[in-house]
Every structure is written in structure tokens, then in C-alpha cells.
Design goal:
The complex is a heterodimer of chains A (318) and B (289).
Chain A: H1 2-51, E1 57-58, E2 69-70, H2 74-80, H3 83-103, H4 105-116, H5 120-130, H6 138-148, H7 155-164, H8 175-203, H9 207-215, H10 220-245, H11 252-258, H12 264-267, H13 270-280, H14 284-313
Antiparallel strand pairs in A: 1-2
Chain B: H1 7-39, H2 42-46, H3 60-67, H4 69-100, H5 108-120, H6 125-134, H7 142-145, H8 152-164, H9 167-175, H10 180-191, H11 193-209, H12 212-217, H13 225-234, H14 245-287
Classes of the chains: A mainly alpha (318), B mainly alpha (289).
Protein name (chain A): Binding-protein-dependent transport systems inner membrane component
Transmembrane segments (chain A): 27-47, 93-114, 135-156, 190-210, 231-252, 284-302
Organism (chain A): Lachnoclostridium phytofermentans (strain ATCC 700394 / DSM 18823 / ISDg)
């Protein structure tokens, strides 16, 4: 009995080893495929991640990217006392919040209404045209905006002048318009694109539900309220929670383009502050500390909203 | 369909159609206006006569930018970055996505975790900048290409697509003596044209539209066309030097519009052909990681 057991153990040990070898021999090509991509992830994703130690170290030009000596939380304390940091922080949250309030519901409404269009070809045309702006460069969006709003020749000022006799307004330079321009260009660019997800969810609703509602005498508005919206509510919830998670990651490039010294009090966000203190003034460690701080807030927002999403809807992004 | 002809329904439809036409106009008018301005006589622009129809058609602005050596160079650069960048990205993403689509491969789960983690936490601007300059990529075209070889979002789209392919074909090919490289090249890639087209379009659009990386990493000669446009809009680059100084400002407007149109045209032309694929891509990608 014991001899047999020993024997089987002896057999099992080399067997395990050989299964490992067999796995490698069988799949080595799959591992070979991954060599370059993994090297890419190490070099371009994980090395910069560890480069964040610079936030805790003093940087000296020409002495390596990771700084020369530890300084602890010096740079964190520094920006916590810096009024321009808090201004950027407030601006980031204000713009994000406005963006959420305005640009979260618009694609839902658009998707629901588009779904009610019964002329198939017209529906296709609207859909196709509506997500085209998503493919346009931020620079082009900004340039078009500048032309449309130009005080001397822009279409909007012409219109305001001809219809209401108003004096030209320099929209791009006056701070009070900055946030609205940011949010509205975002709706222009992304409404159609985001609506795709809701449209897909609406397509998934069983036709029986609508028929049953019709038999019960519901008109189309009632069908929307009692069938369509409740059916896509899980999708709406997931999207809402994810949007909250992504709140801090504003379209940095657009803000950078729209930034002018005269609107800086409202347009300076954390990312542009990092850009200016880091790359412009070469205050690398200080800028890294600010960047790391906002990155960590971002991770906390994403992971907590994902947990919430999983809890309430059973679905998350990871 | 008599039941649709009720009064309430007709009003409802009318409202929807008005809203949809409004959406169409909002999306299209900016481009039509740019086209009109780029084709108009500068005098008509100054006198605020141009709205959506070009006045006194002339192609002067286009002639000007095509005579402009910097514009040509920038345009060529962008074509290079888009072509080579998309190719590198498609190859690298496919090479990674295929093994990662095999759940029984050892280490697959860990590799997925590494990928997903890097979507939520990254080095940030400064560490990335210092990495690129320490690798000696600053001032070379590689700075526009290598750091963007794989996008995690596209990778996940491809992994999900590869997972959905029937495994029987692959097994049959392996039994017939094809290696995994062979399977990938001869079976998986041809079957995945739709997914590759989607990911390819996203990637191409990214490279075509990128300007910020050019701004921080490149020399003037290597600038992509979007950065050229930004510099015109910013007033960093002067345009209209062929004309007298009085006309400069007005010519600048039509030149700006001409640059906007020419730099956006390829995407607008390419887009309807690939359009049918990318809706699928977005919905696949949004489902799960």
C-alpha cells in the first residue's frame, strides 16, 4: 500500500514537470508573440509609472530622470499651499460637474428620440452625421470655433448683429463664456458617439414589451416613459457611474488650446497647470507631484465608481 | 399602419423631425461655413457677406497653401505618422491580443491585469516626457510612433473579437500542421477584417489628429499638419505673406479655413467607408474588459 503510494508520487513529480514543459513546447509561439508587446508595456507604461517617484525626489537637470535625493512630501506640501493649485482644482471640478450635468443626459435624449424616427434612411443619415464630429481633431474644433465666433467676421456675431442689432462679442477671450464653450463643444463632438451605446441598449429591448404597452393603450410618449427608459436604466446607471469616475480627466488638449491669459482665472485646470509648471518652467518634481495627486484621485474615483456600479447593476468595466 | 395616423402621433413625429434636422444642421453647418469661407473672395469676407454660400468663388486660399512649403511638409508628415503609426499599432496589438484571447494560456490572467491596471493609472505628463527624452526620442519621428504602439482600449476590442471566433477552425488548422504564427496570419487575421478595420480606423484617426505630442517632442520640420494649423490659429505662424499687409488679416481667415478643410478632408472621405464597422467595435469594447 505504502509502496504503491510512493510509486505514484514518484511518477507524479516528473509528470507535473513534463506538463509544464509540454505547455511551453506547445505554446511557445504564443509566448514569442507577446515579447514585443510586453516590452512595450514595460517601457512605455510601467517605467513612467515608476517615474512618479520624482514627485518625492529633487530633480537636477542632466542627472537622470529619477532625481538626485529624497525630499519626502515637500512638493506635496508646496502645492497644497499654492493658491494657483487650488484655483486649478476648483476649475477642474466646476467644468467637470457642468459637463456631467449637461452632457450626460443629452445623448440619452438624443438616442431615445432618434429611435422614434420611423423613416429608416433619414434615421441612418442623422446617425452617421451625428457622430462625425467625434473624428475631428481638437485643433480643428478649436479653429472652427474661433472662426464661427470671431468678432469681425464670425457667423454668430453676424447673426446677432443682423437679427438683434448686437455689438460683436469677443467670445473666445471673455472668461464668462469659457466654461459654456468648453461644455457645448463637447456636446457637439460627442453626443452622437455616446448615443451609440444607448441606441444599442434600446435595440435590445424586446418588441413584446412595446406591443403589450400599446394594447394597454399607451401612446408613444407613455411607451418611452414606461418601457424604453426603465429598460435602458441599467445602461444609464453604468454610464453615469463611469462618467463620475472619469470626472477629472477633462479634455486637456481643448483647454490648452482655449487657454488665454485673459480667461486663465477660469480656464486653468490641473492638467494645464502641470503642463505649464512642468514643461514650461521646467519645475519637473513639483509638476510630477501635482500630476500624481490628480492621478490618484482619478484612480480612487474610477475604482470606487466601478465598485458601486457592480454593486447596483452587476456590471462594471473590469 | 392606421394607428400611427393619430393627431398626437403626427405632432410627436413633427417635433422629432425638427429636433433631428436641428442636429443635422448643428453638425454640418460649421463645415459648410468653413468651406464657404475658404472659397470666397476675401473682400466678401471682410464685408460680412459670407454665410453658408461662397461669394465670388476663388481658389486663391488653396493655391496659397499649396505654394506654402511648410504646409506640404506638415501634410506629408501627418500622412507618414498615420500610415506607419497605424501599421505598427495594428501589428503590435494583434500580436498581443491573439495570445491574450486564450484563457488557458499560463500567465494570461496576469497579463490582462497588467494591461487593465495601466488603463487607470499612468505615469502622467512629466514622467512620460522625461522617459521620451531619456530614450533619445525627442526630435525624432519615433516620438510620435512608439509611445502609442498599443492602445489598451483597442487591445480589449480585439481580444473580445478573437474570443468570439469559432475555435474549431483553429484546432483543425493546428492538427493540419500549421503553427500558431501560421494560424494567426492565415486564419485569424483574414477572419477579423471587420475588427481590424475598426481598430485601424480609431488608430488612424488618433495619429491624424495628434498635435500635442508633436508640440512637446518634435522639431519644426517634423510637425504634423494639426500642429501647423494650431500655429496658424495661434498666430505663431504667419500666413498670407504673398499679399500686401493690409489684406493679410482677411486672407489669413480664408487660408485658415482652407487648412481646416484640407486637413480634415481625408477623415471625412474615409469615414463613410469604415462607418459600418465601428459601431460594432464601440459596443463590443464597451461591454467588458
Amino acid at each position: 500500500m505504502s509502496l504503491e503510494k510512493k510509486k505514484s508520487e514518484q511518477v507524479q513529480v516528473p509528470k507535473l514537470k513534463s506538463s509544464k514543459q509540454r505547455h511551453l513546447r506547445r505554446y511557445w509561439q504564443l509566448y514569442a508573440m507577446m515579447v514585443l508587446p510586453i516590452a512595450y508595456f514595460i517601457v512605455f507604461k510601467y517605467v513612467p509609472m515608476f517615474g512618479n517617484v520624482l514627485a518625492f525626489r529633487r530633480y537636477r537637470p542632466g542627472m537622470g530622470p529619477y532625481g538626485v535625493s529624497w525630499v519626502g512630501f515637500k512638493y506635496f506640501n508646496q502645492f497644497m499651499k499654492d493658491p494657483s493649485f487650488w484655483r486649478a482644482f476648483r476649475n477642474t471640478f466646476t467644468i467637470s460637474f457642468m459637463n456631467l450635468i449637461i452632457n450626460f443626459p443629452i445623448p440619452i435624449v438624443f438616442a431615445i428620440l432618434l429611435n422614434e424616427v420611423r423613416a429608416v434612411r433619414f434615421k441612418k443619415v442623422v446617425q452617421t452625421v451625428s457622430y462625425m464630429p467625434r473624428f475631428i481633431s481638437t485643433v480643428v474644433v478649436f479653429a472652427i470655433l474661433g472662426e464661427l465666433l470671431s468678432p469681425s467676421s464670425g457667423l454668430l456675431n453676424q447673426f446677432l448683429h443682423n437679427v438683434f442689432g448686437m455689438e460683436p462679442i469677443y467670445f473666445m477671450n471673455e472668461p464668462q463664456y469659457f466654461r459654456w464653450l468648453y461644455v457645448l463643444t463637447d456636446s457637439w463632438q460627442f453626443t452622437g458617439w455616446t448615443a451609440i451605446i444607448y441606441l444599442a441598449a434600446i435595440t435590445g429591448i424586446s418588441a413584446d414589451l412595446f406591443e403589450a404597452a400599446q394594447i394597454d393603450g399607451a401612446n408613444r410618449i407613455k411607451q418611452i416613459i414606461h418601457v424604453t427608459i426603465p429598460s435602458i436604466l441599467p445602461t444609464i446607471m453604468v454610464m453615469l457611474i463611469l462618467n463620475v469616475g472619469r470626472m477629472l480627466s477633462l479634455g486637456f488638449e481643448k483647454v490648452l488650446l482655449m487657454y488665454t491669459p485673459s480667461n486663465s482665472s477660469l480656464s486653468d485646470i490641473i492638467d494645464t497647470l502641470v503642463y505649464r509648471t512642468g514643461l514650461y518652467n521646467q519645475n519637473y518634481s513639483y509638476a510630477t507631484a501635482i500630476g500624481l495627486f490628480s492621478g490618484i484621485i482619478g484612480v480612487v474615483l474610477v475604482s470606487s465608481s466601478n465598485t458601486l456600479s457592480k454593486k447596483f447593476t452587476g456590471d462594471g468595466i473590469y | 399602419m392606421k394607428k400611427y395616423r393619430t393627431k398626437g402621433n403626427i405632432i410627436f413625429d413633427a417635433i422629432i423631425y425638427i429636433i433631428m434636422i436641428f442636429v443635422l444642421l448643428v453638425c454640418l453647418v460649421p463645415f459648410i461655413y468653413m468651406l464657404a469661407v475658404s472659397l470666397s473672395d476675401p473682400k466678401a469676407i471682410v464685408n460680412n457677406k459670407v454665410s453658408l454660400i461662397p461669394i465670388g468663388i476663388n481658389f486663391e486660399a488653396y493655391k496659397q497653401i499649396f505654394r506654402y512649403p511648410n504646409f506640404f511638409r506638415a501634410y506629408g508628415n501627418t500622412i507618414f505618422y498615420t500610415g506607419v503609426g497605424t501599421l505598427i499599432s495594428l501589428i503590435m496589438t494583434t500580436l498581443f491580443a491573439y495570445p491574450l484571447s486564450k484563457p488557458n494560456l499560463w500567465g494570461q490572467k496576469i497579463a490582462m491585469k497588467i494591461v487593465v491596471f495601466s488603463m487607470f493609472f499612468s505615469g502622467g505628463l512629466i514622467p512620460n516626457y522625461l522617459l521620451i527624452s531619456n530614450l533619445g526620442l525627442t526630435g525624432t519621428r519615433f516620438a510620435m510612433l512608439l509611445p502609442f504602439a498599443i492602445s489598451q482600449f483597442n487591445l480589449i476590442i480585439l481580444i473580445n473579437f478573437f474570443k468570439s471566433l469559432p475555435s474549431e477552425i483553429e484546432e483543425a488548422a493546428l492538427i493540419d500542421g500549421l503553427s500558431y504564427f501560421g494560424v494567426l496570419r492565415k486564419i485569424i487575421v483574414p477572419l477579423s477584417k471587420a475588427a481590424l478595420a475598426t481598430v485601424g480606423l480609431y488608430t488612424a484617426v488618433f495619429f491624424w489628429n495628434d498635435w500635442f505630442n508633436g508640440l512637446i517632442y518634435l522639431d519644426t520640420k517634423q510637425y504634423p499638419v494639426m500642429l501647423f494649423l494650431r500655429n496658424i490659429v495661434n498666430g505663431t505662424t504667419m500666413v498670407g505673406d504673398a499679399a500686401g499687409s493690409a489684406d493679410k488679416a482677411t486672407i489669413a481667415i480664408s487660408i485658415k479655413s482652407a487648412v481646416i478643410i484640407t486637413s480634415t478632408l481625408p477623415i471625412i472621405i474615409l469615414y463613410p467607408f469604415l462607418q459600418k464597422y465601428f459601431v460594432k467595435g464601440l459596443t463590443v469594447g464597451s461591454v467588458k474588459g
